[in-house]
Each structure stands twice: as C-alpha cells, then as structure tokens.
C-alpha cells in the first residue's frame, strides 16, 4: 500500500477537486467530512509545503471505500477501520453479517433500480413488494436503492418458510422506538460546537445500532432455543 501511495502521489488533487470527483457518487460529501475522515485516521493526504492537502489516487479510493461502507452497510468508523486494515494486509475482509467483501465491491458505483428491475433481480412477485410497502418495510419510490433490494431479497427467502411482511409490522414500530433511543443519545453530540459534531453523531448512532442488533438477535435466539427445549 505504501508503494501504491507513493506512485499515485504525483496525481495529487486539491480538496476542491476531490469533492468535484467524488460527489458524483456521494453528493452529500463536504470538506468537513473529508477532514473528519482524516482526523479519524482513515485517510492521510499529503501536506504540501504551502500547507494545503494533496489527495492521491489511493486517498480517493480510500474515501470511496469508507463512504460506500457507511452508506451501503451502515458501518461505524470503528468497524471500517478494521475492514481497511484487512484490505491493507492483502486479505478479503468480512462484514459483521459474515458477507465477504472485495475492494471492487467497495469501490462500485451505487446501483439504482426501477420497480420492474427490482422485482426481476430479487425474484419477488409483485404482491410481495406491495405487502412490504404496506408493512412499512420498504418505502415506495420511482427508483429503488440497493438497500431496498437487500430487504426484498431477504423477504423472498423468508416467504419460502411462510414468513410474510404482515408478520413483521412490529419490526418497523420497534425500529422507530430504537431510532428515538439513539437520537436521544447522539443529539447532544450533533449539537456540539465542533465542526465534526454531526459526523461523530452519525457514526456513534451506527455503532449503537450494531450493538442493539446483536442484543436483539441474542434475545430472539434465546427465546427460540427455550421454546424448542
């Protein structure tokens, strides 16, 4: 990685040029966000004698990886640190869910789907998508995100065991309650005077959400185990 960074340093871009390039894929990216990622040790742009930052191709790819992992997998920076360390070591990292990642997948452009494309790729019948929307599991839209695709594919698998969206209406209600709990915790961070307060709040919320999910799964499986015993 050090050699790659050295080779790409000559193609250094200013922070404004990086924003122009990366915002095509991540329109919400700001200079504050870039500095936050640097503060957290996720990117290390070169400092020129003038004091300005110079971003190499390696830095830009790194930024895309971090933003993709946040957007598509809702991972906190603590977990992303570990994933990037695995990449640096030449290994294929694994998500908390057990899914194996590749550098290519972390650099891929976000995929969007029309309704017909969503149904075709997921293999879901129209009725299943409609039921998922009614249950509040998927938000109706003209164009659907990869997140909607993941949910619908999971629902297709669940439907094979007779589990339908109507059985999961409580999930949305519980998710909203959990979201309120997280908001109460992270809002003071977001309202801080720090220029990266909002970014820290978002990352803290992701970290808390992962831990809430671990507890939820553990409690659910304990209940299942007890009923089987």
Describe the structure.
The chain is mostly helical and 229 residues long. The chain folds into 3 domains: 2-107, Multidrug-efflux Transporter Regulator, Chain: A, Domain 2, CATH 1.10.1660.10; 113-163, no CATH class; 169-228, no CATH class. It is built from 11 helices and 4 strands. The chain has helices at residues 2-8, 15-22, 31-39, 57-73, 77-88, 103-107, 115-122, 126-134, 146-159, 169-190, 197-228, and strands at residues 46-47, 53-54, 113-114, 143-144. It has a two-stranded antiparallel sheet. A hairpin with a 5-residue loop joins strand 1 (46-47) and strand 2 (53-54). Helix 7 packs across helix 9 (146-159) and helix 10 (169-190) runs antiparallel to helix 11. It is globular and about 65 Å long.
Number of domains: 3
Q: Taking strands numbered 1, 2, ... along the chain, how are they ordered across the largest sheet? A: 1-2
- From the alpha-carbon coordinates, what is the Rg to the nearest angstrom? 20 Å
Structure class: mainly alpha
| CATH fold-level label of the largest domain | Multidrug-efflux Transporter Regulator, Chain: A, Domain 2
The averaged pLDDT comes out at 85
CATH architecture assignment of the largest domain: Orthogonal Bundle
Approximately what portion of the residues adopt beta-strand conformation? under 5%
CATH class of the largest domain: Mainly Alpha
Order of helices and strands: HHHEEHHHEHHEHHH
Largest sheet: 2 strands, antiparallel
Helix share, percent:
55-70%
Number of extended strands: 4
Shape: globular
How are the elements arranged and paired?
Blueprint lengths: L1 H7 L6 H8 L8 H9 L6 E2 L5 E2 L2 H17 L3 H12 L14 H5 L5 E2 H8 L3 H9 L8 E2 L1 H14 L9 H22 L6 H32 L1
Helix pairs in contact: 7-9, 10-11
């Amino acid at each position: 990685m050090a050699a790659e960074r050295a080779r790409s340093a000559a193609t250094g871009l200013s922070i404004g040029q990086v924003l122009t390039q990366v915002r095509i894929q991540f329109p919400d990216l700001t200079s504050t966000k870039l500095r936050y990622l640097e503060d957290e040790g996720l990117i290390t742009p070169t400092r020129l004698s003038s004091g300005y930052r110079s971003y190499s191709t390696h830095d830009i790819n790194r930024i895309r990886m971090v933003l993709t992992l946040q957007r598509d997998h809702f991972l906190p920076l603590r977990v992303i640190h570990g994933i990037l360390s695995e990449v640096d070591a030449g290994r294929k990292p694994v998500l908390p869910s057990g899914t194996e990642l590749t550098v290519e997948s972390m650099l891929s452009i976000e995929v969007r789907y029309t309704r017909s494309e969503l149904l075709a790729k997921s293999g879901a019948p129209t009725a299943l998508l409609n039921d998922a929307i009614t249950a509040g599991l998927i938000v109706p839209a003209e164009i659907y995100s990869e997140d909607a695709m993941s949910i619908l594919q999971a629902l297709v698998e669940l439907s094979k065991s007779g589990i339908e969206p109507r059985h999961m209406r409580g999930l949305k209600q519980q998710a909203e309650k959990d979201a309120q709990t997280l908001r109460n915790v992270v809002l003071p961070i977001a309202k801080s005077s720090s220029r990266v307060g909002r970014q820290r709040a978002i990352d803290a919320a992701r970290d808390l959400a992962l831990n809430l999910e671990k507890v939820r799964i553990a409690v659910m499986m304990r209940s299942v185990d007890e009923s089987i015993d």
